[in-house]
Amino acid sequence: DTEVTQTPKHLVMGMTNKKSLKCEQHMGHRAMYWYKQKAKKPPELMFVYSYEKLSINESVPSRFSPECPNSSLLNLHLHALQPEDSALYLCASSQGGLGLASVRGQYFGPGTRLTVL
Amino acid sequence: TQLLEQSPQFLSIQEGENLTVYCNSSSVFSSLQWYRQEPGEGPVLLVTVVTGGEVKKLKRLTFQFGDARKDSSLHITAAQPGDTGLYLCAGEVDAGGTSYGKLTFGQGTILTVHP
Question: How many CB pairs under 8 A join A and B?
Answer without folding.
Answer: 81
